[in-house]
Amino acid sequence: MTKAAFRLAMRHEGNKWTAYCAKPDTMDGAIWMGAIAMGIVRDNEDRRRAFIELMKDALMDFCKEQGVTVESWNEYTAAEHERSGSA
Length: 87
Hints:
Elements: E1 7-13, E2 16-23, E3 26-37, H1 38-41, H2 45-65
Antiparallel strand pairs: 1-2, 2-3
């Protein structure tokens, strides 16, 4: 299995759900990708998944520009020390 070069990190920050392109093991130097109001996605799983898919597509494009091929996605809950806001 190939080690991840980047990951999509989703964080609940204030009244927004925010997406970052981050290194595999840290949020240091993470690149802000986009955000959506929590009120739009909080109680709507379809919208929540649509936002995740949009951010995954954007991250795949970024990776491709860096010469990195996305082989698969693994979803997991971030370590406690990486969480922010009410994540």
